[in-house]
Amino acid sequence: MEGANIKKRFDALVENRKTLEDTYQVIEKFVVPFRGEFFKPMAEEQEVDWRRREIFDSTAIMACQTLASSMQGSLTSPSVKWFTLGFKETALNESNEAMRWIEDCENKVYGALQDSDFNLEASEFYLDLSSYGTSILVEEVDDDD
Question: What is the pTM of this model?
Answer without folding.
Answer: 0.73
